[in-house]
Design a protein that fits this description.
332 residues; Rossmann fold; 5-stranded parallel sheet; Bact_iron-sidero_bind; transport; signal; ABC_transptr_periplasmic_BD
Length: 332
């Protein structure tokens, strides 16, 4: 059901948590205020019609002119591979990071017709330290990176010396505006906007089917870190789009996530817990002494999820995957 929902693209209806100065909010025509921006960032983009080249795109690293439609694209951030595939483009090269596969399994499942092309994607190293020589050997028409979690200025300078490079903002908070900016660079802005419009409509429609006001929690374990995710996170944005309530401990908007200790596991409790473990060994969470004491666990409402989809790849197809799981679990 999950993969069908992704491929076809096609708890609570309570109001989302109010944003603070540290998380930019956007308002839509229905006056609802969302923590995750839904539009192109002010002053960014090209302003050019789709398919028109040359085009000069203003982005988070400066501005870049693309003389013609890019055919060979290298992505430095894993979620950008998701975004390109959603727009019908297979990247030529890609990085991996945080223990994630270069091309995660959910993308193979969502785009089966691209399997051979995905098998041919060239590994260009870590997203934090990509192999510049490997990228240069590809001779790309466009390189995509984001500014999150790295020395962005230095990396942008290195990549720009190889090929036209575009920098998005990065992190789960900005995945929608980053999709639109990336789409502008490849001349597919309207396609990206249409995708977002349909996704938002489907998320709202799902939320309206949820009975009661169950709060949903997002919990991840990777390496020596255990974290809960707030409103300004990727999975949190999908819950917000659906109008789902969040536990008090996860209504923060000034950080993507908060680290908790094993003794603080109660901060992950809610009516429903959607938990992911990097590497797939759920016992890293379920064997913790406080796990059986959580209300969601006692009610058999703790759901193991795909870590790649919920917590590692902030792309549109992953967002569809999260929405599908929420719908399957909570929808009527």
């Amino acid at each position: 059901m999950l993969i069908a929902a992704i491929a076809l693209s096609s708890c609570s209806t309570g109001a989302p948590a109010a944003p603070t100065d540290t998380a930019t909010a956007t308002a839509t025509a229905d006056t609802t205020v969302y923590t995750t921006p839904r539009t192109m960032p002010d002053g960014k983009g090209s302003g050019a019609e789709d398919g028109v080249f040359p085009r000069t795109v203003v982005h988070f690293g400066g501005e870049t002119t693309l003389e013609s439609e890019p055919k060979k694209i290298v992505v430095i951030s894993t979620g950008q591979a998701d975004a390109l595939l959603t727009l019908g483009i297979v990247p030529t090269g890609s990085t991996s990071g945080d223990g994630a596969d270069m091309i995660p399994a959910y993308l193979y499942e969502a785009f089966p017709d691209d399997e051979a092309a995905l098998d041919s994607v060239i590994d260009v190293g870590s997203r934090f330290e990509p192999d510049i020589e490997s990228i240069a050997n590809i001779a790309p028409d466009l390189i995509l990176m984001n500014n999150a979690g790295k020395d962005a200025a230095t990396l942008y300078a290195s990549l720009s010396a190889v090929a036209p490079t575009l920098a998005t903002q990065g992190t789960g908070l900005y995945w929608k505006q980053d999709l639109l900016l990336l789409a502008d660079a490849v001349g597919k802005t309207q396609q990206a906007q249409d995708w977002l419009d349909e996704y938002h409509a489907d998320a709202q429609a799902f939320g309206e089917t949820v009975t009661g006001e169950p709060a949903v929690s997002f919990l991840r374990k990777n390496a020596d870190r255990t974290r809960v995710f707030g409103v300004a996170s990727f999975s949190g944005s999908v819950a917000e789009d659906s109008g789902l309530a969040r536990p008090e401990t996860q209504q923060f908007v000034d950080d993507t996530s908060v680290d908790i200790s094993a003794e603080q596991l109660d901060q992950a409790d809610a009516d429903w817990i959607f938990y992911g473990v990097q590497g797939g060994d759920d016992s890293q969470l379920t064997a913790l002494p406080l796990w059986p004491t959580l209300v969601a666990v006692d009610d058999d409402q703790a759901v193991s999820v795909d870590d790649d989809i919920f917590y590692l790849n902030v792309g549109p197809t992953a967002a569809r995957g999260i929405l599908s799981v929420l719908d399957t679990t909570l929808g009527n």
